Amino acid sequence: MKLTKEFRGENDMEMQIADYKFRVRELEKLNDILKEEMQSQYIEMTQLRSIEEAHKNINGKLRTRIKRLEDMIKEQNEHIKLLTVHP
Q1: What is the predicted pLDDT for the residue at 15?
Q2: What does pTM read for this prediction?
C-alpha cells in the first residue's frame, strides 16, 4: 500500500491525538496521586496542630501548678524559719 501525503498526515494526526490522550491520562493519574498526597499531608498537619494545641494547654496548666507549688514551698520555708527563730 502506497502512503500518500494526505494519508500520512491523517495518520500522523491520529498518532498525535493518541499520544496526547495518553499524556492526558498519565497527567490525570499523577494529579490524583498528588491530590491524595496533599490530603494526607493536610490530615497530618491538622493532627499535628491539634497535638500542639493540646501540648500548649497541658503545658500552661503544668506551669500554673508548678508556680502554686513553688509558692507553697516558699510559704512553708517561711513558716519553718519563723518556728526556728521563735521557739
Answers
A1: 77
A2: 0.58
